[in-house]
Structure formats: C-alpha cells, structure tokens
C-alpha cells in the first residue's frame, strides 16, 4: 500500500500521509456528506407533511375513504393561501441596474415575503394568535413556471424560519434569482421549493412509469427532465437542480436503514435541560 501512495503522480499529501490517517480523514468526509443527506431528507419530509395536510383538507377523499393524495402539478398558489399568505405581483427586478452584492455577484430580487403574527381584537384589546400570516410579492415579469418556484421558495422561508416575526411585520428580502451568491438560508429555501414542487414519492412513481414507457437503453436524461419540467410546471433549470436533490433524497432513504442519524441524548434529571415540574 505504501508503494501505491509513493508512486502517486499528484497530491503530495497522499505520499506523505499514513494510509490509516488518510482513511480516517476520508471516512469523516463521508460522514459529513451523510449528515448533509439527512438534511435533504428532512426537508423533503417537511414538504411532504405540508402537502399531505393540504390535500387532505382541501380535496375530496378517495372512494375508499382515504385522504386525497398529492398529484402533479402541485397547486402552490393555493397552498400559499392555505398558509394565510396573500399573493401580489409587481415589478421587483431591475435587470438594467442589477445590484452587485458584496461578493461581486449580480443580485436581483424576484420575490419577497412579508410575515407577521396574526392579531385579533378581544374585549377592546389586541392579542397575538399562535399563527403566522402575511404576503408574498412576486415579480410580474417572470414566467408562470418561474413564479411557481418563487412562491415555493418563499414558503420555504416560512416553514424553515429560525425566528418568529418581530413586531407587526417581518420582511424576507429573498429569492434573489438563480445566479447570485446567497447565504445558507436561500439554499435551504430552494431545497424546500424542490421538495414541494417535486415530491419524492411522486417523482419516483413517475420515473418508474417513464422507464416502463421507454424501453430503450440508455434512457435520455434530458427527455426525462423535460417530462419533469412539464409535470411539475417548473423552469428547466430548476427541474434539473431539483432532480439532483431527488437523487440525494433517494440515497438518504437507502442509507437510513443502515446508519440512521443518532438520537439526541435524553436530558438528565435535575440538569439545566430538565423539564420544569408542575
């Protein structure tokens, strides 16, 4: 094994690092990737929960009495309204004077979310309700498929938010378009948008049908992407990226039975995390 490393034409660290240490480092890299796959799987699961609730509450039950199941294309505008968001269209993006972000990339806002804690008046006093309401503003110059993705992206900020709205209004100036450098919350919101508009179970079922209908080898990747693009009513760019995340979700599912993520340790009695006693 040492001879293999010493003859490596590149990567001098492979020649100087002990094989045991190299293997240990690579296992840590793999474990980090598996953690990322768990994040993907978790976001797809949250999107599926939203879809299951929406279809069960807004669509007729099946003849056998079971809840209605999600189907393509996902009615993302209806879902936004179901979540107490009003939709508006206006002119947000100015392509002639694109804002330059601090990293040197062009940034054009194509959608924006405004959230607030819902309030109601009770006995001449205003009280906060335990739910969120607000609006989603979309650039009117987008095509309809791009608008669908922008709405799903904003719903990702709603579902994955890390804080409640502060004061009467909380603005997410987000969905900056596909070419900007963005913080991690935008990647997570995109992940949710893929999961919402390309549900894992629906894509798996449709792919199986596609393979049965096309008995030739190899199957055309771009033909399959065009099927997804039409079924989900997404821009091709997002259909491609979304399908790549679907493949990660499938890998996470296949790995989860072998190496499920560790559970958080239970809080110790009397410790700082112990639940208060009544």
Sum this structure up briefly.
The protein is of the alpha+beta class and 278 residues long. Helices cover 48% and strands 14% of the residues.
**What's the arrangement of strands in the largest beta sheet?**
1-5-4-6
Q: Pick out the low-confidence regions.
A: 1-6, 95-101, 269-278
Quaternary structure state of the chains depicted: single chain
Sheet-strand content, in percent, reads 5-15%
Largest sheet: 4 strands, mixed
Could you state the order of secondary-structure elements as H and E?
HHHHEEEEEHEHHHH
Fraction of residues in H or I helices: 40-55%
User: Helix segment count?
Assistant: 9
The residue-averaged pLDDT reads: 81
Q: Give me the secondary-structure category.
A: alpha+beta
Radius of gyration computed on alpha carbons: 23 Å
**Gap between N and C termini, in Å?**
63 Å
What is the number of beta strands? 6
Given the C-alpha coordinates, what overall shape results? globular
């Amino acid at each position: 094994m040492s001879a293999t490393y010493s003859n490596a034409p590149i990567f001098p660290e492979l020649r100087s690092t002990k094989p045991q240490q190299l293997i240990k480092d690579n296992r840590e890299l793999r474990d980090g990737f598996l953690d990322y796959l768990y994040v993907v799987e978790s976001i797809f699961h949250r999107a599926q929960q939203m879809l299951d609730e929406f279809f069960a509450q807004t669509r007729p039950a099946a003849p056998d009495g079971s809840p209605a199941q999600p189907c393509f294309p996902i009615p993302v505008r209806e879902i936004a309204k179901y979540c107490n968001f009003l939709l508006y269209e206006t002119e947000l993006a100015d392509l002639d004077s694109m804002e330059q972000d601090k990293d040197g990339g062009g940034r054009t806002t194509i959608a924006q979310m405004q959230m607030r804690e819902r309030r109601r008046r009770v006995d001449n006093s205003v009280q906060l309700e335990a739910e969120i309401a607000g609006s989603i503003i979309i650039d009117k110059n987008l095509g309809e498929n791009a608008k669908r993705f922008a709405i799903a992206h904003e719903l990702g900020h709603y579902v994955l938010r890390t804080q409640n709205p502060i004061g009467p209004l909380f603005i997410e100036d987000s969905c900056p378009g596909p070419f900007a450098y963005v913080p991690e919350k935008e990647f997570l919101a995109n992940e949710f948008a893929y999961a919402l508009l390309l549900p894992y179970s629906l894509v798996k079922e449709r792919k199986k049908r596609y393979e049965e209908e096309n008995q030739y080898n190899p199957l055309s990747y771009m033909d399959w992407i065009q099927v997804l693009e039409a079924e989900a009513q997404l821009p091709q760019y997002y259909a491609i990226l979304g399908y790549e995340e679907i493949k990660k979700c499938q890998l996470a599912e296949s790995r989860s039975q072998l190496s499920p993520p560790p559970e958080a340790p239970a809080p110790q009695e009397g410790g700082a995390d112990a639940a208060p006693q009544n």
